[in-house]
Amino acid sequence: MKDDVMKTPIPVSLPPLATGLIAVAACAIFGWLFLLAESEVAVLGLVLLAVLAGWGAQKTGLSATLGTAMHQHSGAMNGAIVASLLAVIALLGTEHFPLLMLSTMLLYLVAALGLNVQFGLTGMVNFAGAAFFGIGAYTSAVLTTHTAVPPLLILLAGGLIAALIGALLIVPVVRTAGHYSAVVTIAFGVLFKTFLEVNEVLGGPQGLMVGSMNVFGWDFNNGPVLMGHEMSFYVNYALLSSGLAILAFALTRRLERSWLGLALDSVRLDETASACFGINVVRAKVLAFTYGNILAGIAGALYGMMISFIAPNSFTFSDSLLMVSIVLLGGLGSLWGSALAAVIVVLVPEKLQILQEYRFLLFSVLVIAMLLFRPQGLLPRGVRSYFPGGRAQR
Amino acid sequence: MDIGLLGQYLANGVMLGTMYALVAVGFTLFFGVLDVIKFSHGDVLMIGAFTGFTTYLGIVAIGIENPWVALVAVLVVSIATTAALGALIARYLVLPLKSAPPLNILLITLMLGTALREGVRLFYPDGSNPKAFPALLPTASLELGSFSLRADSVILVSAGIAVIIGLNLLINRTRLGLAIRAVAQDEETAKIMGINYTMIVLVTFAIGSGAAAFAGIMNGLYYNEVNFGMGLLLGLIGFSAAIIGGLGNIYGAILGGFLFAGLQTVGAVALPFASAYKDVFAFGVVIALMAWKPTGLIAERSSDRV
Amino acid sequence: MSSIKIENLYTAYDKADVLMDVSLAVEPGRITCLLGSNGAGKSTLIRSILGLTPPRAGRITVDGKDITGAPTHKVIGDGIACIPEGRRMFPKMTVSENLRLGAYQVRDEALIRERMERVFETFPRLAERRDQLAGTMSGGEQAMVSIGRGLMAGPRILLIDEPSLGLSPLYVKENFRIIESIRETGITVFLVEQNVRQTLAISDYGYVLSGGHLVAQGSAEDLRNDKEVYAAYFG
């Protein structure tokens, strides 16, 4: 685990890069074991191990070393992370359920990254994340069953429709601040689910079937064959979700580090001062809101295709709160924080079935504790640094 | 349109308006004294309704049959419990975050609302299913042509309006109300006047939460049902009503509550074929109102509190 | 008659020290003043006494009773009242409601009415406007309400923070005259001011605060005649 508290790293005999690569490999093996773990005892043990490892990494200064590795060798480290993600997918190969969980987590991460740009960078909290996710899913349901639009384009359409419907909210959201804009998104989040439930065209409470993904003639319902072994068809979705998550991560990182990201930051910190320095506050907010909704919509569209059946109950206000929880638990504006929190919020209850029923309760209590005792989140965002050649840390 | 039916709509609208106003007044009081949105308010209301329901079961269990005795017991226990809950929330979740970014209090109370909701769903016996709330009020009705005026409705509305008037008198005519208004207008000067600030904040949260419990019991008696999710919608409606009325203004909150009920009723009259969409319509109107008048119909001035 | 004693007081906001090792005494039945320029820490001293910004170290006693760091409403309960800087009306309340709040801790309604009548005798103008919203009054009228509100509590000690701030010279003169008359009723006054000449004219004893340190003290007459202090701090 990484942490931005810059303690002096305890001199480890290995250089930061080597330590970092070993840590990534360890995380990958851990993830693989975790996804495959069957018994609740095993899962609990692994969760405990992760907590201990995270705590130990902070105590020994390992996290600081990892921070240095991410900072100085970002190319190699990011490459290693992508490679180990692919390796985990390949190792899971024929396991349907773990692959589905991994993909779900990655798609939630995509949506959470979008929310993070809205909330963490720009300071506009969106309590309708699950609604925009749902808009994407319903778009893909309608388009896959009623039209011949190529499914890859449907992903974009999901994002686009989410952005368009979001545009209806832009006027009230941008014109209002704080509490008032919160009520707009809360109202929309509740409205969306109520609307789906009473709308017969969209299947009412029962929901809709969704067609599968199809890339250039390759139907995602077929499992890919690797060296003579047929793998789970979820490998397709896991790979595409990974691609989407990596793309979203890279884009969001670029956005954060660009001048635009700086503008968004300044809007969050002080709207009036930003306006005085010539930042177009309205444009910054519209940009952040639209960007976030597009990401949620695209992720939702792929999610719909993957689970092939969607219903209003998957896109409730509580689900929106769960997405906000991911952003808050990870740390506002911290992208790796969102990734870690997505793992905790999505994967842990899926693996610990006893928790599944209690997940809204569990995470609401966790967020309350977080807000009281560690409001900066699990992996707080680093401070921007503008030394020559330097970049915002993580 | 049939006069009788119109009367029915009107009676229903007044009933809803009273309930919404009671919830909105709470939001306005909290915002007045502390500048915070306590979003768990709706779920606190739900706790109030469930406490009342549980009290009723207890009363029946010890063999008391008289509905009036039961009603008084239900109201007293429910309001007292909920008021205490409100004060506890203020003390342990809201006041500690007073100097944090204001959004954190909104978030922490949203999460608390979820926790309360989920807590009842998971831990109340058979909590995920609606509970049949007893009809404790006389159900005799007065027939005026096709319009029937039921005694229980009349009692409920009168009692609700009496509570609103009582709250208003409390705020504007008593020493406690004077202190609440002083804290709302200028926290520090209020302290210099010798007002025990923390105490006033806790009492205010207790009063607002007690009013919500009353609205929750009203809701249970009117619909003869309580369920774990009832607070989410009522809370959101109360919040919207408070905002429409310009947060922090007690008359605005009352007006907002009746306006919201009016909108829903008009929606139901105008779009009878789409009655399923009445909540969608109401929230659509809230969003549109926010676009048109971002700070509510009665604009909030920083000095215009409570 | 009552007194305040402050010993070795340190007060800080976050990390910035504002008061450093301040010791002073407010003698019973007299007007003691604290002079100093903007940012010298004068208002912080008042806030420390009232418990609004509790001190980091040191001791504040009222008639021998330790009130260091006590919550504000307890300090007020010990017979201290304050006329805050900038008058601080409750703008959406009437004049009588503002006055009523001054006597918040008084439970005897008859006593409150009696005191209010006395305030109206001192400021006949307020009697005419008792139902007007305080926020709609002129600065001079608000100053009257503020002083009246401070007297409503029937304090033994009155802290007055910059009464001349933002007022026309005519009102300033009038206010100082009233403060002088407050002493005659046996109330101990601690007056914090920037307006050196007029303050020393009515005070019995004075302290000078600069950069968080006490730099001079003496009887009002001595301070008036101390050319060095004048040159160094009041230029």
From TrEMBL, chain A:
It holds the Pfam family BPD_transp_2. The keyword Cell membrane applies. It comes from Thioclava atlantica. The chain crosses the membrane at residues 12-35, 41-62, 74-93, 124-143, 149-171, 178-196, 234-252, 286-310, 322-348, 360-379. The keyword Transmembrane applies. GO terms for molecular function: branched-chain amino acid transmembrane transporter activity. Its main location: membrane. It is found in: Cell membrane. It is a multi-pass membrane protein. GO terms for cellular component: plasma membrane. Keywords: Cell membrane, Membrane, Transmembrane, Transmembrane helix. This is High-affinity branched-chain amino acid transport system permease BraE. InterPro entries: ABC_transp_permease, LivM-like. The lineage of its organism: Bacteria, Pseudomonadati, Pseudomonadota, Alphaproteobacteria, Rhodobacterales. It comes from the Bacteria.
TrEMBL record, chain B:
Keywords: Amino-acid transport, Cell inner membrane, Cell membrane, Membrane, Transmembrane, Transmembrane helix, Transport. CDD domains: TM_PBP1_LivH_like. InterPro entries: ABC_transp_permease, BCAA_transport_permease. It is a multi-pass membrane protein. The keyword Membrane applies. Its main location: membrane. GO terms for biological process: D-alanine transmembrane transport; L-alanine transport; L-isoleucine import across plasma membrane. The chain crosses the membrane at residues 14-37, 44-64, 70-93, 105-124, 153-171, 200-222, 228-247, 254-274, 280-299. It comes from the Bacteria. GO terms for cellular component: plasma membrane. Coiled coil: none annotated. GO terms for molecular function: L-isoleucine transmembrane transporter activity; L-leucine transmembrane transporter activity; L-phenylalanine transmembrane transporter activity; L-valine transmembrane transporter activity. It is found in: Cell membrane. Pfam families: BPD_transp_2 (PF02653). Belongs to the binding-protein-dependent transport system permease family. LivHM subfamily. This is High-affinity branched-chain amino acid transport system permease BraD. The lineage of its organism: Bacteria, Pseudomonadati, Pseudomonadota, Alphaproteobacteria, Rhodobacterales.
UniProtKB/TrEMBL annotation, chain C:
The lineage of its organism: Bacteria, Pseudomonadati, Pseudomonadota, Alphaproteobacteria, Rhodobacterales. It holds the Pfam family ABC_tran. GO terms for biological process: L-amino acid transport. Keywords: Amino-acid transport, ATP-binding, Nucleotide-binding, Transport. The keyword Transmembrane does not apply. GO terms for molecular function: ATP binding; ATP hydrolysis activity; branched-chain amino acid transmembrane transporter activity. This is High-affinity branched-chain amino acid transport ATP-binding protein LivF. Residues 4-235 form the ABC transporter domain. Belongs to the ABC transporter superfamily. It comes from Thioclava atlantica.
